[in-house]
């Protein structure tokens, strides 16, 4: 996608794979800052502090973390130790452990002296795969928007939650990929953008859409149900951090409430995600998906631009206040119309058959 008209990716290798450059998403949407990660520990820090975020991008960053670790300490014990630390940087997005395990599976059988070169090549491969996968997700989701446009003969109003655009992947995005693809084909669309407290990732979605010229409106998280009741939402598309084999979807906190409202108002509700987000080891998302609990400060302190035009943080409640801050919730498959994947749109209950190659003993 583009930033100020310049083609840009959320992550790219530099110096022949001896480092990676990311967009520091903690600075968005107020300013675009690049940050170079030259050590695998930098990757852990970037993932845990959400300088990079979104399940696919977390996975790609994890792959590069292993690649950097292989260049520093290619021998088994230290490489495996670093990989475990990387994989545990955030618990909910399964793409992270998927990428780390894929890297180790390729590296451990090789002689330590050959691991660095192999690691860089595989991390580059995983990076490019993510781009192609997201483009395929976009193509798979376009018919849903096209069918609604043919039926309604007016702009299609799509509600999304959190950010599942190109910033959450290497490029194109997951939930936003069908929207971008439809928009580029000339279909009129309008996106309702949930603010997504407490991290306000919806502001990143709005920033992306504005850069791309897609009509959109930011709304409070709790406005979605009312808009659905008023007939102002035609479709809901969200991303996912982990999907079970029966189609339960873990996504940013608040997604479950959007799914309930969509179900009550008979509005299609889709999750868009690559195969790497599907965890065939799990069935019951509510019971089995680990839910990350994050710092109370995310609720108690907000960041914005002050009167002088500078980014600053403001405390909105006493720091000793009791706080619960679960980062994700789980939507049962019965509320999910379909999963938009690189292999097409799949009914939640058919994931296991369509993606049977992902099942491992």
From TrEMBL:
Substrate binds at residues 53-55, 90, 201, 251-252. It holds the Pfam family IF-2B. Keywords: Amino-acid biosynthesis, Isomerase, Methionine biosynthesis. Pathway: Amino-acid biosynthesis; L-methionine biosynthesis via salvage pathway; L-methionine from S-methyl-5-thio-alpha-D-ribose 1-phosphate: step 1/6. The active site is at residue 241. The record marks 162 as: Transition state stabilizer. It comes from the Bacteria. One of its GO terms (biological process) is L-methionine salvage from methylthioadenosine. The keyword Amino-acid biosynthesis applies. Its EC number is 5.3.1.23. GO terms for molecular function: S-methyl-5-thioribose-1-phosphate isomerase activity. It catalyses: 5-deoxy-alpha-D-ribose 1-phosphate = 5-deoxy-D-ribulose 1-phosphate; 5-(methylsulfanyl)-alpha-D-ribose 1-phosphate = 5-(methylsulfanyl)-D-ribulose 1-phosphate. Belongs to the EIF-2B alpha/beta/delta subunits family. MtnA subfamily. Catalyzes the interconversion of methylthioribose-1-phosphate (MTR-1-P) into methylthioribulose-1-phosphate (MTRu-1-P). Also catalyzes the interconversion of 5-deoxyribose 1-phosphate and 5-deoxyribulose 1-phosphate. Part of a bifunctional DHAP-shunt salvage pathway for SAM by-products. This is Methylthioribose-1-phosphate isomerase. It comes from Sutterella parvirubra YIT 11816. The lineage of its organism: Bacteria, Pseudomonadati, Pseudomonadota, Betaproteobacteria, Burkholderiales.
């Amino acid at each position: 996608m583009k930033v100020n008209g310049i083609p840009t990716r959320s992550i790219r290798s530099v110096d022949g794979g001896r480092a990676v450059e990311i967009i520091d998403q903690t600075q968005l949407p107020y300013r675009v800052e690049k940050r170079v990660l030259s050590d695998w520990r930098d990757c852990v820090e970037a993932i845990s502090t959400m300088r990079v975020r979104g399940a696919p991008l977390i996975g790609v960053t994890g792959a590069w973390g292993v690649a950097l670790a292989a260049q520093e300490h290619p021998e088994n014990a230290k490489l495996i130790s670093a990989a475990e630390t990387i994989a545990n940087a955030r618990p909910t997005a399964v793409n992270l452990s998927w990428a780390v395990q894929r890297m180790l599976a390729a590296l451990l059988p090789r002689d330590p002296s050959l691991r660095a070169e192999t690691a860089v090549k595989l991390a580059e491969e995983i990076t490019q795969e993510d781009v192609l996968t997201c483009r395929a997700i976009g193509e798979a989701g376009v018919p849903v928007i096209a069918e609604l446009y043919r039926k309604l003969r007016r702009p299609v109003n799509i509600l999304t939650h959190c950010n599942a655009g190109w910033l959450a992947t290497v490029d194109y995005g997951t939930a936003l990929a069908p929207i971008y693809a439809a928009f580029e084909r000339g279909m009129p669309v309008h996106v309702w953008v949930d603010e997504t407290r407490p991290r306000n990732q919806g502001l990143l979605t709005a920033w992306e859409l504005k850069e791309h010229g897609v009509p959109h409106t930011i709304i409070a998280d709790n406005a979605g149900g009312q808009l659905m009741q008023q007939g102002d939402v035609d479709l809901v598309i969200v991303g996912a951090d982990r999907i079970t084999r029966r189609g339960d979807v873990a996504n940013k906190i608040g997604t479950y409430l959007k799914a309930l409202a969509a179900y009550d108002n008979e509005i299609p509700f889709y999750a868009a995600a690559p195969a790497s987000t599907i965890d065939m080891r799990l069935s019951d998302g509510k019971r089995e998906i680990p839910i990350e609990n994050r710092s109370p400060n995310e609720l108690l302190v907000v960041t914005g631009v002050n009167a002088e035009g500078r980014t600053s943080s403001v405390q909105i409640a006493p720091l000793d206040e009791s706080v619960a801050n679960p980062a994700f919730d789980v939507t049962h498959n019965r509320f999910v119309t379909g999963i938009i994947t690189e292999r097409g749109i799949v009914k939640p209950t058919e994931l296991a058959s369509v993606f049977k190659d992902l099942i491992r003993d």
